[in-house]
Design brief:
The protein is mainly alpha-helical. It is built from 6 helices and 2 strands. It has helices at residues 10-17, 21-30, 47-61, 66-74, 78-111, 121-127, and strands spanning 8-9, 44-45. The chain has a two-stranded antiparallel ribbon with strand order 1-2. The protein is elongated and about 70 Å long. The relative contact order is 0.09.
């Protein structure tokens, strides 16, 4: 593939994506983003690979591992894709609930007038396990 204005070398692609070049090499080793090589051996990233890289970043932020991302890109099974994302969505909702509770606790502690946190009944209530 000849190097064109629309293609990027690894350093330019990494800068555009906001990652280090070793991240792109790692993704290549994992098989999730394998760019073609120029005649001199340089990796060449076109617009399509940049889009795929952004999807990888989004999937990683969603909690998917590289092996799950590789499976996602390889599978044509909507059922498998839905199952994978439903599981991640449930995990994220649990994390959001936990973070919301933590923020509520911190907000309370900032307003709390008790000299010792464990003497405050409201603070103690935050330490109790939640029941679904």
């Amino acid at each position: 593939m000849p190097h064109t204005a629309a293609s990027r070398r690894i350093g330019d692609a990494a800068a555009e994506l906001g990652v280090a070049t070793h991240v792109l090499r790692h993704w290549e080793d994992a098989g999730v983003l394998v760019p073609p090589r120029a005649p001199g051996g340089q990796r060449i990233y076109d617009g399509e690979l940049i889009v795929r890289a952004r999807l990888i970043q989004l999937c990683q932020r969603s909690g998917l591992s590289l092996s799950e991302i590789k499976e996602l890109f390889a599978t044509r099974s909507r059922t498998r894709r839905v199952a994978l994302f439903a599981d991640k969505q449930a995990q994220l909702r649990t994390r959001v609930d936990d973070l919301t509770r933590t923020i509520d606790f911190l907000s309370h502690v900032l307003r709390c007038t008790h000299p010792i946190v464990d003497e405050c009944p409201d603070c103690v209530d935050f330490s109790r396990p939640r029941h679904p």
